[in-house]
Write a structure and sequence with these properties.
single chain, 0% strand
Length: 330
């Protein structure tokens, strides 16, 4: 049952995944199998998160952590820490996310869970990158190396995509191209279409980049790009193509997500979550032009006129200012 739930999750059938994980949790509980219950509860929290029900996902992760600590289930405690780290990042609580994920990595190492360590390093790297902390790239590199060693292809590819995105943002085009080429090779079979489309979209932001492969991959896999991942994909496509329809859809998905979350979290989610902040900045600016470095030329950051925009954030955000969208130099 748990394996079928994981297949549903990987293929974007989120409602089916929820139902199967809930059934697996009940079966594990009846069989007095705390490890199985912990794993399925942690996965259920991530599926619920993908559906945009972030408050509920956090409650599930917190409940899992409490139950695991009370029963001495250190593996379950690690899963809970990892889930809380990802979910608090979604809420814009980056300091909390970093702390949870550092503890997840440390505990995974302590109990010898190399798969968990690889996934923890991946998410820690993403959080640090969202905090504009350059050490995030090193954590992502560690994650990719370990994920390849232990055979967690999705984590290895995701680390490559995240590294590529970071290098695009800081203007290291050679490093970005190498990381993204490697990730695209891993993702070529289309098993993880959201990652593939984002990677191809990031490649399109580089000098001489072509958005056609990203557009083609989206056309092929569109029905499988659902939930939280759809927001990332649509905004990546907007940056790559300048097609306002993708920005409109990303904004709609963001509005839907905010509507499902307690209002007390809205401010942090709007300004603490990098992709949300960039969607809102692009929306307010009304920029519909392509963000490719080669197209933007010497555009300047709207907030910091002395900073070249395109090389730093791809779609026009200024070098040290991660939230603005450059106005067209024309």
């Amino acid at each position: 049952v748990a394996s079928m739930a994981e297949i549903y999750y990987a293929t974007g059938r989120l409602d089916d995944a929820c139902a199967e994980f809930e059934r697996a949790i009940s079966m594990a509980r009846e069989a007095d199998h705390p490890r199985g219950e912990s794993r399925c509860t942690g996965n259920l929290a991530l599926v619920v998160r993908e559906q945009g029900r972030i408050d509920e996902a956090l409650r599930l992760a917190m409940r899992l952590g409490q139950t695991a600590r009370e029963s001495g289930n250190r593996g379950g405690e690690a899963i809970a820490l990892g889930s809380q780290g990802v979910i608090t990042r979604d809420l814009g609580l980056l300091d909390e996310s970093r702390d949870f994920l550092e503890r997840y990595v440390a505990l995974s190492r302590e109990i010898g869970n190399r798969r968990g360590e690889a996934i923890g390093l991946l998410n820690l790297g993403i959080t640090l990158a969202d905090m504009d902390d350059a050490t995030g790239a090193a954590r992502l590199r560690e994650s990719r190396t370990l994920a390849v060693e232990v055979g967690v292809r999705q984590a290895a590819a995701a680390a490559g995509v995240a590294m590529g995105e970071w290098f695009v943002r800081v203007g290291d085009h050679d490093a970005a191209r190498a990381a993204l080429d490697d990730a695209v090779e891993m993702l070529a079979d289309g098993t993880f279409p959201d990652l593939l489309i984002v990677a191809l979209s990031q490649k399109a932001l580089l000098p001489g980049g072509d958005p056609a492969p990203a557009v083609g991959a989206f056309a092929e896999h569109r029905e499988r790009v659902v939930g939280r991942a759809a927001l990332d994909v649509r905004f990546a496509l907007f940056r790559a193509t300048g097609d306002r329809a993708h920005l409109d859809e990303a904004k709609r998905l963001l509005d839907e997500t905010l509507a499902l979350v307690a209002e007390e979290h809205h401010e942090a989610m709007r300004h603490g979550v990098r992709v949300n902040r960039e969607i809102l900045a692009a929306w307010e600016e009304g920029s519909g032009g392509s963000g490719r470095v080669s197209d933007r030329g010497e555009d300047r950051c709207a907030c910091q006129p002395g900073v070249v925009a395109g090389a730093a954030l791809g779609f026009g955000g200024g070098g040290d200012c991660r939230g603005c969208v450059a106005r067209s130099s024309s």
